[in-house]
Sequence to fold (135 residues):
Amino acid sequence: MKYVVNIFGLLSDETRVRILLLLQRKELCVCQIMGVLGISQPLVSRNLSLLSNADFLSERREGKMIFYSIKKNMQPAWARILKILKEELRSDVTFKADLKSLSDCHEFQKKTGKCDMETFLKFMDKKKRQRRKRR
Fold:
């Protein structure tokens, strides 16, 4: 019982839900998640650690980079919960903005040809400038 309650507590955080929804779409590294969500590296890493410890995520190392994805063989109950989240939030404004940002991030990465912290800090800076222009 306590484990299930802890899982629902874990999923009560918007940032963690946003990360899970993004990772259902695509394998991502910390830098990419930072760029898409516009949050700090420590916050991303902390939430990834919590999700990994709860057995939601898989990791793959490529040089210095660690890429995260949704675990393929997670408990069926957790997979159903993720499916419900995806279905219920598919038209959510924040989720749609995250998907747009993910697409923009991918295009920015293709143009630069790099996947590193410096590239995604530049991407985040570009996003900030675009937001200021809209105001």
Observations:
- The chain has a mean pLDDT of 89.
- The chain has one domain: 2-134.
- The first helix runs from residue 2 to 10.
